[in-house]
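Inverse folding, one chain.
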């Protein structure tokens, strides 16, 4: 696998902490000190699938390709209004990528999803079943939360990040984990009622539930373990890594993680202050921003690390 191009897209409406305090009992001071978030982008008039496609189009352009060159589209998405068709199939339609020889599918591994999907893309490329994969992580997390629950709604933003991946040996190591703990973060959508449903509580809708402190502790512990293990698996030292690109969940989580590594702190990149937690989109959006700013250069070594509902975690060492 090799990253040929990246792209990202965020909604046009920026919501500051002060703006949020008009909807829920919160303050800029609480949100800033507990999370590091100052603002986030939230979908208003945009169509979610168009945001995802826009990120994809930018990645295709950055790779110097045209949509017809793409022979597989994989999207990672936790939730959007379309249960079916997949987001990947919708993106294929919007970008005008003709079938039938461009398969499409969606994945869902929550906030750890970016690296899960990257590993799957690598497998398809390694085995020669694809030449140019368009891989998009797109999330509208702000539509999964209850906007009367201040403990969750202030945390999230919407975004899409995309990569065009081609053949190469730049995925140096990866690690995926899952520990069954369905109660720490979950969101249940309503399904259609049937005349055969019996018992109580089946399919009860529940906006996102989050055991914040538990997630905080698990995220810090898993990141330290996964980052060390994956770097060792790649046959490298931590000091060889140029950029650590972690899931942007909370600045305090990122600070707690980086304090445990004796490394220059600026190697841990972040944009949570401007974007909020955008779930699986957070890593590819940050990656794209830092590539376009010139911070990440060809040949640089990067570690990706994520954690989220499941409880799932993932890490990879990738050369840009
Ligand atoms: O992508 C993975 C998904 N999840 C995460 O990454 C979340 C990880 N966890 C966290 O980021 C933190 O645990 C939170 C930011 C969610 C919460 O921070 P905390 O320091 O653990 O706060 P808390 O939940 O213990 O709440 C402390 C107080 C409570 O008041 P009392 O009981 O002490 O009077 C809350 O009611 O803060 C109150 N509170 C708020 N106050 C103002 C909770 N949310 C808010 C709010 N504004 N938005």
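Residues assigned per position:
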């Amino acid at each position: 696998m090799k990253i040929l191009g990246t792209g990202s897209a965020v909604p046009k409406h920026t919501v500051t902490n002060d703006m949020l305090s008009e909807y829920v009992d919160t303050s800029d001071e609480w949100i800033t000190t507990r999370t590091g978030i100052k603002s986030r982008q939230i979908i208003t008039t945009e169509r979610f699938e168009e945001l995802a496609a826009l990120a994809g189009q930018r990645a295709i352009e950055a790779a110097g390709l045209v949509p017809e060159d793409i022979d597989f589209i994989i999207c990672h998405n936790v939730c959007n209004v379309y249960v079916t068709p997949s987001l990947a199939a919708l993106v294929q339609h919007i970008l005008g990528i003709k079938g039938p020889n461009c398969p499409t599918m969606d994945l869902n591994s929550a906030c750890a999803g970016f690296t899960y999907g990257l590993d799957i893309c690598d497998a398809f490329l390694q085995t020669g079943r694809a030449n140019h994969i368009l891989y998009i992580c797109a999330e509208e997390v702000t539509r999964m939360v209850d906007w009367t629950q201040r403990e969750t709604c202030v945390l999230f933003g919407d975004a899409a990040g995309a990569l065009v991946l081609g053949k190469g040996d730049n995925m140096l190591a990866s690690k995926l984990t899952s520990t069954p703990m369905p109660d720490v973060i979950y969101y249940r959508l309503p399904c259609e009622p049937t005349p055969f449903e019996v018992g109580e509580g089946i399919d009860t809708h529940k906006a996102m539930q989050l055991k914040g402190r538990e997630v905080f502790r698990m995220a810090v512990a898993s990141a330290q373990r996964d980052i060390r293990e994956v770097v060792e698996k790649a046959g490298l030292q931590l000091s060889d890594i140029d950029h650590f690109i972690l899931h942007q969940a909370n600045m305090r989580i990122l600070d707690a993680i980086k304090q445990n590594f004796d490394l220059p702190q600026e190697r841990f990149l972040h944009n949570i202050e401007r974007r909020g937690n955008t779930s699986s989109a957070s890593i590819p959006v940050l990656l794209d921003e830092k590539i376009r700013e010139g911070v990440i250069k060809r040949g640089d070594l990067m570690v990706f690390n994520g954690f989220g509902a499941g409880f799932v975690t993932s890490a990879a060492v990738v050369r840009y």
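The domain at 2-169 is CATH 3.40.47.10 (Peroxisomal Thiolase; Chain A, domain 1). The chain has two domains: 2-169, 172-319.
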